[in-house]
Amino acid sequence: MPISSLVLTLDASPESRALALSELARDPRITLGPPVEGRWLPVVTETASPYEGEELAESLRELVGVSFVDVVMVDFSEEER
Amino acid sequence: MDRRDFLKGSAMTAATLAASRLAYGQDRAAVEPPSTARQGGDVQWNKAPCRFCGTGCHVQVGVQNGKVVAIAGDQKAPVNKGLLCVKGYHVGLALYGQDRLTTPLLRKGDKQVPISWEEAIDIIARRVLKDPKGFALYGSGQWTIPEGYAASKFVKAGLGTHNIDANARLCMASAVTGFLATYGVDEPAGCYDDLDACDVLITWGNNPAEMHPVLFSRVIDRRSRGEKVTLIDIGTRKTRTSGFADHSLRFKPNSDLAIACGIAHLLVENGTYDKAFVEANCAFRASSTPPTLEGKAISFEEYRELLKPYTPEKVEQLSGVSQKDLRMLAGLFGRRDVRITSLWCMGPNQHTQGTAMNSLLHGLHLLSGHFGKPGDAPTSLTGQPSACGTVREVGTLSHALPGGRVVAKAEHRAQMEEIWNVPAGRVSEKIGYHTVEMWKRFSTPTEQGGDVHTVWVQVTNPAQSLPNTHKLVDPSRKLADKFLIVSDVYPTATTRIADLVLPSAMWVEKNGMVGNSERRTQQWFKLVQPPGQARDDGWQLISVAHRLLELGFAGMKDKDGRFLFDVKGKDGRSVPIWEWSHYYDVNVDEHLFEEYRKTTRIKHKDLAPYQEYVKARGLRWPVVQQPDGSWRETRFRFSGFDDPYVKKGRDIQFYHSTSHDDRAQIWFQPYEPPPESPDSEYPFWLCTGRVIEHWHTGSVTMRIPQLRRAMPQAYVEMNRADARKLGVDNGDLVTVETRRGKLDLPVWLGGRGEPVEGSLFVPFFDERLLINELTLDAHDPFSKQPDYKKCAARVRRRERVAEKQK
After folding, report:
1. For residue B587, which of B513, B484, B637, B489 has the smallest C-alpha distance?
2. Is B515 a catalytic residue?
3. A35-39, B4-8, B375-379, B509-513, range with the lowest pLDDT
């Protein structure tokens, strides 16, 4: 179960941000931290495979209300390769 | 708390700290890499630069039981300050695709069958002996610096030819000639620090939001923190970058030259150019007859006269960019109270007038004085991790020699003969074949002048990335005496058609050094073993060189009879590094680098000793030793406040000036129409490029199931109005056709990119849909870089999704 540590930069518009936050909250793979200054959202994802983690990170980039996705850390130490 | 909860807690702490740093803009303190909190705590962390683009982010690589198990942004790295883009995922995973090449393969009939390394090395050596002049080496900006140096030495000092070129010819060559024509020396004067200081960021024909996201987010984060940074996106297609821009300007293909001339015209006519800067530091240049990279000197008045036709009205007509926007751009360049950074990438480079366009971009910054201060910089970006460090600095090109030297200069050849300790005359005066010419000759029958009989490809995928592949690649596969050797980590379009395939080690499976877009040289150590019999590209080269020595080939000996790649151990005895079992008995990288370092001074590209790079997260050249023995990097070249080679008391000094008077050249280059434009028969513009999910030809990223699912195949982006006229919708199949070939592709409307009416965009990552069978091989006269961004095409509707489902 790879774990990824991400930071999402949210849009300036409060409406878009609210949309993004509600969308993120619906995904059981995602744990949200408290937003910093309302714009920078710490996120931890837990996925079945590192590939799924990557796919999830990619999809977050496309989410309405998300400007940017930065990767802080990816741990796939339990992955059988 | 179980281990999983602890891991998640640590991950959240790391994310929260990073979020705070982004929010408050503080440089992170140097701290240890995040702990993966493994029970048993046996994960070993080491630094390495990312394997992918030219940004040069540093990662921390976590290794356990001989496998990479974690990747983290390196908090000590000035480039990325602990953050990575989404490619941070597959920089670790790329090593572990299921179909890594693990044994040498030789073509026998229709099959490629396993053979031993000894046999493979012998086959290559005998291909050289067939005719050394017809043996070519084709590499890339993914060669590490020591590998590139070994490749260059193998061909130039060993074979006595210059038949070596690299795929950077296809992406960076016009940037190089633009720098040389302007400053007399290659590579940007500024650095990434400019992104932290600019008030205006102009992106010319590039899409850093997707291709260099870590750099782009540096600017976006500043805006998010309330700083005012104006973003201006200038391109032929709407991209993700355009979405962030305050001004998004669309121009007709090839008319970027007219736009640059139009801005210069307004600066001159309005008197808003920086007269003091220009008078102190610049000269003017125009094309000579015959055309050369030095051109001819012209006066300011002549320059002004040449610009006169480029009125806002005329430029609007040529480019489609409104007079209002042109005046807005000229207004910004005319201001002394803002700092302007320009970024560009493939748009101005993959251009039949690439040298001209690059020169004009530098010229705008010089004319307006937006140069040499933090935030004021013209900076070209690179797409590969070492296009700069290896191809441009080591000089793995058919016309180049290490350290900024060129084959054409006898003095430079003599210097390299001395450094390589080879007899006078060994370094040939005959320039080798540039990429397009090399492949053209490989694909031409020998009796018709096709004098390249063998090409050895390392770290690139030319059967997919070369332009006009029907002409440059396919014919060679039908000629019995042409032999293609390919070293790679995964099967690719090129390995599949090869006669001999060699399995290579990748990234942290070997030692390495690379150089990024801001002159930053970086180093890493081998951390894990390569799979099966995969081996370093550097070892492959040295092993072939030694086999040639054994077969009596004199070129692999120096003047004193020593092997060209002789390396001594601590006991003073030669180490047999050509034997794989001994390759890591010594640090071959360090030996090659220390030899290469001797070549770097003449162009003031001074490098520090290898061990300095072991300690650092990269150093930007020139790196100069201080009185206290420490080594200091240079952030801003030619600027008196930072560059140690600028004479004391001078603000700016262009010490490699082509006019030998410490001046940079402001060029006039006219707008010229492209070699092929839409007409009644082929009414569309066709542009090719990259997508975020796949790196270049997709040879690594298409192996990652989720990425393949996210972006499973190539497509054609069209404007909605064109789609309506054609009667096609999303997903419908169309045939895209040029004078060179045709391809069936699904339509994508309203995706992340949006071409203007009358133009198409097709990505080149998909080896099953080779768009480069359709592109032109027309290229810039100086850089020889082909233009992948514009040719004429037509589109026919083939199959509608609705019909398909019936």
Report:
1. B513
2. no
3. B4-8
Side-chain-facing half-sphere of B210: CA atoms under 13 Å: 21
Would you call B388 a catalytic residue per the annotation? no
Which pLDDT value is given to residue B713? Answer: 80
Percent of chain B with pLDDT over 90: 81
Q: Do B706 and A46 count as a contact with CB atoms less than 8 A apart?
A: no
Over range B575-602, report the average pLDDT. Answer: 98
| Residue B246 DSSP symbol | S
Residues B513-535: what's their mean pLDDT? 98
Distance CA B24, CA B33 (A): 21
pLDDT reported for residue A81: 46
pLDDT in tens, B625-649: 999 999 999 999 999 999 999 999 9
Q: Give B384→chain A minimum CA distance, Å.
A: 20
The mean pLDDT of A47-52, rounded to a whole number, is 87
Is B64–A74 a contact, with Cβ atoms under 8 angstroms apart?
no
Q: If we measure between CA atoms, which residue out of B674, B695, B798, B691 comes closest to residue B742?
A: B798
The beta strand positions in B611-727, using DSSP E, are 619-620, 624-625, 631-632, 664-667, 684-689, 716-718
In the structure, how many helices (H) and strands (E) does chain B have?
28, 33
- Report the distance separating Cα B51 and Cα B387, nearest Å: 12
Residues 108-167 of B with CB under 8 A from A: none
Average pLDDT over residues B450-478: 92
Q: What Å distances lie between residue B800 and A36, B726, B728, B758, CA to CA?
A: 48, 11, 7, 21
Whether the per-residue pLDDT at A80 is higher than 60: the answer is: no
Between B190 and B787, residue with greater pLDDT: B190
* HEC per residue, B697-739: CCCCHHHCHHHHHHCCCCCEEECHHHHHHHCCCCCCEEEEEEC
CA–CA separation, A49 and A29 (whole Å): 12
B328 is catalytic: no
Contact A5 B34 (CB under 8 A): yes
Tokens representing B489 are 């980590």
b/e code B692-706 from CB counts within 10 Å (16+ = b): bbbbbbbbbbbbbeb
Residue A27 or B383, more confident = A27
For residue A69, the chain B residues in CB contact (below 8 A) are: 85-86
Chain A residues interacting with chain B (CB cutoff of 8 angstroms): 1, 3-7, 9, 12, 31, 33-37, 39-44, 46, 50-55, 57-59, 61-62, 67-77, 79, 81
DSSP conformation class of B258:
H
B1 flagged as catalytic: no
Residue B579 has pLDDT above 70, yes or no: yes
| Interfacial B residues in 660-689 facing A (CB < 8 Å) | none
Catalytic residue among B282, B346, B556, B718: B346
Report DSSP letters for B149-218, one per residue.
Answer: HHHHIIIIIIISS--EEEGGGGTTHHHHHHHHHHHSS-S-SS-THHHHH-SEEEEES--HHHHSHHHHHH
**For B283-304, what is the HEC assignment?**
EEEECCCCCCCCCEEECHHHHH
**CB distance from B62 to chain A under 8 Å?**
yes
Inter-chain CB proximity B709 and A36 less than 8 Å: no
- Please indicate, yes or no, whether the overall pTM of this predicted structure exceeds 0.85: yes
Q: Tell which wins on pLDDT, B31 or B453.
A: B453
Nearest partner of B56 among B527, B679, B512, judged by Cα: B512
Cβ-Cβ contacts under 8 Å, B217 against chain A:
9, 68, 70
